[in-house]
Amino acid sequence: MIIAKRVIFHGRVQGVNFRANASELAVSLGLKGWIRNLPDGTVEAHFEGNEERIMEMIERSKTELFPAMVESVDIENALTENYSSFSVIR
Q: In what order do the strands lie in the sheet with 43-49?
């Protein structure tokens, strides 16, 4: 079953290639959606896929996307928008 989650990443996540690295990880996990910087220094993502893969994405983002340092994440359910790929919004 395909679900969607809106995720806000807090910490050192801007200016450290976090979006590009997260995008590569999302694609490798078969996720669709997008990721973008927010003006407050956080990064917002919309992930679509199965729940297990989305949660794996979030957990791996906390430890594998060096030199970024994710301090916390906010996760909420979102509406599925049926994206065909994953993209970095500039």
A: 69-78, 3-12, 43-49, 32-37, 86-89
Give dist(CA 57, CA 59) in Å, integer: 6
Q: What is the pLDDT of residues 30-84, one digit of tens each?
A: 999 999 999 999 999 999 999 999 999 999 999 999 999 999 999 999 999 999 9
Place of tokens 């970024």: 68
Name which CATH class applies to 3-80.
Answer: alpha beta
> Taking the domains of the chain in order of start, what are their residue ranges?
3-80
Could you list the active site residues?
19, 37
